[in-house]
Design a protein that fits this description.
Layout lengths: L5 E5 L6 H8 L9 E3 L2 E8 L2 E10 L2 E8 L4 H14 L7 H8 L7 H4 L11 H11 L4 H15 L2 E4 L2 E4 L4 H4 L4 H6 L4 H16 L4 H5 L4 H9 L6 H11 L11 H9 L9 H9 L5 H10 L8
Antiparallel strand pairs: 1-5, 2-3, 3-4, 4-5, 6-7
Helix pairs in contact: 5-9, 5-12, 11-12
Length: about 300
Amino acid sequence: MNSERTILIPIPALFSFDECLWFLNRNYDDCLHIIKDGAIFKSIEIEKEILLICIKENGGFLELDILVGEPSQENKAYLVAYVREWFDMDTNIQPFYDKLKTDGRLAYMTERYKGLRLIGISNLFEAICWCIIGQQINLSFAYKVKRRLVERYGPRIDFNNESYYTFPEPEILANVDIDDLKAMQFSQQKADYVIGIAKAFASGSLDKESLRALPDFTARKKALTAHKGIGAWTANYALMKSLKEPEGIPHGDIGLLNALSSHNIIHERSETSKIEALFSNFAGWESYLVFYLWRSLTVKVLE
């Protein structure tokens, strides 16, 4: 351990690094992190500088090692905040567990998935692009398409014979040739959407902090769906994953519906009143319930 390059982040109660690793390592071809030997390796861009970090569990801490990049105090503070947000470490999930225990169909989750946190996507632009990529295709193929995009346009850093990528900047994707995206097996529509959203971020008409500053969930969702390519599902997913909005329920999601059915909460997908009744009992924890229901699936959907 190099004290100059190592940061110890205290692990909160009801936190399982193993459960979080499971989510990030579900045998899909993710191009934005590498997991090996019980550790996560990820590149992160800070003010145009690419840093490579390694995160592993060390007793009651997450040990964050800066493998490549300047270990300045500013960078360290940024990385700690990034990791705490990524793993939702600042949320006390005990109230959610208390609610789960009141429902006999779901109470088992408090032990089986104990310590699982809502793994986020800090980059709102990335979260929205991921939704667009994943529309109407299976998850394995969606990861392949994302990899093609990231490896072509994303910043790269090499370390110990591995390449690590960060998601492309909006300014880059705003100016790509649509035929190049189609060659990566983007449909015409998806290519149009990605370029359009990239232009919105590049121009400043859409950004995470402005969205966060809006007065409530409804206003934030409305601001997102005003952009072509962002429907209700994408807006809910992005708000759930990037802003950790409790109300971000991706209604109509096939995986969510399957999980509700497998728990005998609904028998027909049209039983919206039963779905609404369930989520009303989890007010303030709706997105966590979605995440745990997704966790319960054998066949995974876009998460």
